[in-house]
Each structure stands twice: as C-alpha cells, then as structure tokens.
Design goal:
76 residues, alpha+beta, Alpha-Beta Plaits, four-stranded antiparallel β-sheet, 3 helices, 4 strands, 36% helix, globular
Length: 76
C-alpha cells in the first residue's frame, strides 16, 4: 500500500540512462515499493509507505542528479 508518494522535479533528467540510474538508487531505499520516472516532465515519483524524504533525495543525488520540490517547480 502506498500512502504518500514523494514527487520531485529533477531538471537534469533527460534520458533513459538517467531514469535507470535514479531508479536503481531509489529501489534500495528502505520502504520504497516503486519508482516512476517521467522524462518529458522531468518528474520522479517515489512510492511506498513511510519513505523518508531525506533518504529519497540522497539517493537521487547519489545517482548524480538534483531533486527539487515538485510544487515549487510547477508554480515557478
């Protein structure tokens, strides 16, 4: 069951290799049950129960990318 998906805008996300790197890093974060990547909108959605935001952000950064707040990115 997925209670609160975490959504990130990742401006440097642009290809399937980026998607693979981010997905592989996020899949090992505790409580992550799924990852969805939208290359067109540069969006990453992390699914799971009680996933820690800081852990998900760190995984994206360790993959070499910059996660930003989704709300801030779509309103600016």
């Amino acid at each position: 069951m997925c209670t609160n998906p975490l959504r990130y805008y990742v401006p440097d996300l642009h290809c399937e290799t980026c998607e693979k790197r981010i997905t592989e890093r996020l899949e090992v974060v505790p409580d992550v049950t799924g990852v969805a990547v939208d290359l067109v909108n540069k969006e990453v959605v992390v699914l799971g129960e009680d996933v820690v935001d800081a852990a998900a952000r760190k995984a994206i950064m360790l993959a070499g990318y910059t996660p930003k707040e989704w709300e801030a990115s779509v309103t600016s």
